[in-house]
Amino acid sequence: MDLTKFFLYTSLAVITYLMLLAWQADYPPLVDGGSQQSPALQIPETLAAPVSDIPTDVPTTAPSVVINEPAQPTLSTSPVAATSRLIEIETDTLELNIDLNGGDIVQLALPQYLKQLDVTDDPFVVLESGQGRSYVAQSGLIGANGTDSAGRAVYQTAATNYRIADNENTLVVDLIAQDTEPGVRVIKRYAFARDSYLVDVSFIVENQSPENWQANAFGQIKRGSFDDPSNSGGFINTYLGFVTTSDDDPYIKIDFGDIDDATQTTEMNGGWIGFSQHYFLSAWIPEADTPNRFTTRKNDINEYFGEFTSAAFAVAPGTTGEHTVQFYAGPKDQYALAEMSPNLDLTIDYGFLWFLAAPIYWLLTRIDSAMGNYGVSIILLTLIVRALFYKLSETQYKSMAGMRRVAPKIQQLKDRYGDDRMGLQKAQMELMKKENINMFGGCLPMLMQMPVFIALYWVLLESVELRHAPFIGWLTDLSVRDPFFVLPLLMGATMFVQTKLSPAPADPMQAKVMQIMPVMMTALFLFFPAGLVLYWFTNALLGILQQWYITRKLEAAYEAGKS
User: Fold this and answer.
1) DSSP for 251-286?
2) Of 98, 285, 280, which is closest to residue 190 (Cα–Cα)?
3) What is the pTM of this model?
4) Terminal C-alpha separation, the chain
5) Residue where a domain terminates, one of 294, 320, 349
6) 458 within a domain of the structure (yes/no)
7) 292 near 62, Cβ under 8 Å?
8) What is the C-alpha separation between 506 and 535, in angstroms, rounded?
9) Consecutive sets of 10 residues in the chain, 563 residues long: mean pLDDT of each?
10) Which H or E run includes 294?
11) 319 within a domain of the structure (yes/no)
């Protein structure tokens, strides 16, 4: 098989793959096993309703495993004033609103990531509520003495606006639960850190009653089935849906269609559950040493939930207990996610070639730390990969040069043997052996390189670093298509040159297909992200230069051997 045939088959595979992606989007696969129907109150919350009238959609409790919490946290003693329903909190990385009914995060934006390039003061919104879109992070206490068991807890705070001070690295916001049991004081504490997207959510219980106090902590992500606002458009659609982990499977994807089919439930110590979209992730991370139940479900108005419920923790009379979970909302930073919880970094989905993609991503980030330009970094990375495969490319182009050299002799054999295919094949094999040409030398090296180039493709697709990353001139965002289609046209030109440099197919129909293939692939890549097209163009251009150099050297050596 020569490079021309391989290119034809590869192009067909690319098109088939894209069709498969579209099919999976329309008909998602079922999630197998472990499905349990978990009864829960399915009444939606209405943000416009008065505080006292807002119903709840909290999960059911987990098994009543008691975990004693002897910690004695320091509680805020400042007077608590009744405030409006929403409080505003601002750090260097997060801008969020918390609803005092339930203490839920109902709005969260990322000031370091703009919604639109060059539009300042318009941060990208992860969590939101209103205008027909629901994507919120809810949490609370349920179970025997839970403040959310009979309806969402109502909180008060000392202020309506909080902002991390310039000289401080942390910000603590205390929400004081109202209408608690006599002698019991419950504080829901949000703790923020500078330069971090990870939030500590602590439930602090001061029990001065004569009775033992017990509850289960829960956290859930509630979202409607609207499209991914971070998707760059075009033909490429990344995964949109819930993600979790288990003892049996480190990375589980559960999309809206899966939840439509059945409620999914797993249990494990630690773990996490989140919602994944292109470039960004929200996730609840309960305590690592606590038994937790993870569930995905939906309510009657087609809102979808990914939630955890922890085993019960108890606070003895006269003591103070604390139970802390974590919530993440931010970019898919591979190394930061890996430090938060086991397998959380797998939400950056490199597919089955993750073992190749991970070192490629590491190399790309190292190059960019030195260059400061992701476009230049992509070019240098492609150059390094090409250099590593130089010897394989040399074998490939040697075979192609040999096939091109003996093409007239092969045609003579075809004319001589006519319809005698067995005789023709035997004669061709003898000719290849005489000329020292490996018939598979043009195909096998390319097949060995393909996994690396596919892994590189997924790295560029999944890397949040490419979002709004400039290159040169008109290319101000490598995560979206080239606005003037310059890169796709250049890539098409290189593909045309490659077809001319490759041996012409013997089959006339094949030859015609190869002539139009550069046009078809150019049309396809018109809407690909510019960073991906830059990679394909650079790779093709380097391939042309390598082929020219290696072929010239081989032909010179051949002519010298003849003389």
Assistant:
1) -EEE-HHHHHH--EEEEEES--EEEE-SSEEEEEE-
2) 98
3) 0.80
4) 31
5) 349
6) yes
7) yes
8) 31
9) 43 46 38 34 30 52 50 40 75 98 97 87 92 93 95 95 96 96 97 98 97 97 92 74 96 96 95 97 96 95 95 96 98 96 95 91 95 96 90 74 74 80 81 70 67 88 92 93 94 88 67 81 89 92 86 72 61
10) strand 291-298
11) yes
